[in-house]
Amino acid sequence: MTRGPHFSDSQAALFDLDEAARPVTGTEKLPSYIRDHRARLRERFLIGGADALPDYEMLELVLFRAIPRRDVKPLARHLLETFGDFNGVLSAPPHRLREVKGLGDAVLTELKIVEAAAHRLARSRVLGKQVLSSWDVLLDYCQTSMAHRDTEQFRILFLDRKNVLIADEPQARGTVDHVPVYPREVVKRALELNASAIILVHNHPSGDPTPSQADIDMTAQIQMAADALGITLHDHLVIGKSQELSFRSEGLL
Fold it and tell me: How many CB atoms lie within 10 A of CB 141?
């Protein structure tokens, strides 16, 4: 017996994973409600900037390019529920983003392009600048680049005699609660760059910037090695999810 048209019992994916790979043709016009919604969002952004849009709408703007033929609001809201906020979505590791149903390579690429652009912009605002007089900008940069990492990273900011930032380099990556740091390598690199001062920075994936005893001991060792070679250790910053801690401000240096 011939079967007539029927609906599949299986539920379709939220978004086609390969949707962005197909070009939009004249016969694949967007439904008017999606087209009008996208136009309104773009207009509001152009007029009022990012402050005029909540996180989920900002995320929609990013997703428009990767998913040109679908309503992206459900995916935007789901990503925010999963990763907490806009920054959390952009900074999420690729392997965790791939776990989200309906998120393919096109979306992953768009998110990582925006993240990289944010990092590069923040870096350009501090590199070559007098750091101690632009402290808030430096803290913003550290938050942007490190706050949402799921493993610890240790970075060193190298400064010249005028306290101008001449280099920012990651020295080590670790686990969720530990990163190996070698004082000898820190000062060796400072000498190679002819740096007169350094600022240490590392993140706490737990979100709590309170330094551990290991953090305090390691900082003391680096300070001793730096002092012996005439290099100034200005500070050690611990970056949490929404705040940071300064060793200098806390009296730990």
Answer: 23
